Amino acid sequence: MKREQFNPKLWRMTAPDAPPSPPDHETRLQAHDHTALRLWLRLLTCTSLIEASVRQILRDDFDSTLPRFDLLAQLDRHPQGLRMSELSQRLMVTGGNITALADQLEAEGLLRREPVSDDRRAIRLTLSPAGQKRFAEMAAGHERWVVSLFEGLSLDEQRQLLVLLARLKPGLVEGKRRAAEMRSTKGRARSTSTSRSAA
């Protein structure tokens, strides 16, 4: 890959003189680093800052956590309810994590467990009326806060950024798929090599 030439003017634009700020993912950057690396670390930094702010507002205003909010959000989008296994897949966490969250939320009266008619081993979770009311309050506060975090960009700029990230996403998905294939190929190669050595 052709190495990007260092552009002092661009560096000054992206890192202007300013009072020292707390260390973050961009702190490790150097002036000669490739634009793609700088972009990655800036996206990571912005994501971390947004997530930290959301976690703080949920904790301060609703005495809740982001995992609890995410689980309630999934159930709000699916009024018919979701199985524990479906929630685990959608939230990309273990079944044990879902069980622990469900136990807490059920104890607070925010969700209900219901049997699945065609699978006696499965449990479906649904929001209770209290859970629906509570999530509506949390969602409204969450939306207001996230909107405020992006006030540094105009609406047109936000839309432009959304379009650019939409163009970036498919390539990232494909890169993840290729990496998984490479790991699988290397794993099979190591297994074959080990078998031959044992023989």
Produce a short descriptive summary.
By secondary structure, this protein is mostly helical.
The number of helices is 7
Sequence of strands across the biggest β-sheet: 1-3-2
Mean pLDDT: 86
Task: Characterize the main sheet.
Answer: 3 strands, antiparallel
Shape: flat
Could you estimate the helical fraction of the residues in percent? 55-70%
Radius of gyration: 23 Å
Would you tell me the structural class of the helices and strands? mainly alpha
Q: Provide the succession of SSEs.
A: HHHEHHEEHH
- How much β-strand is present in the residues? 5-15%
- How far do the termini sit from each other? 42 Å
Tally of strands: 3
* Unreliable parts: 8-15
Q: Please, could you describe this protein's structure?
A:
The protein has helices spanning 8-14, 35-62, 66-77, 84-91, 95-107, 129-149, 155-198; strands spanning 82-83, 111-116, 119-127. It is built from seven helices and three strands, in the order H-H-H-E-H-H-E-E-H-H. It has a three-stranded antiparallel sheet. Helix 2 (35-62) packs across helix 6 (129-149), helix 3 packs across helix 6 and helix 4 packs across helix 5. By secondary structure, it is mainly alpha-helical.
Features:
single chain; about 200 residues; mainly alpha; three-stranded antiparallel sheet; 3 strands; about 65% helix; about 10% strand
Furnish the topology, listing elements before pairings.
Elements: H1 8-14, H2 35-62, H3 66-77, E1 82-83, H4 84-91, H5 95-107, E2 111-116, E3 119-127, H6 129-149, H7 155-198
Antiparallel strand pairs: 1-3, 2-3
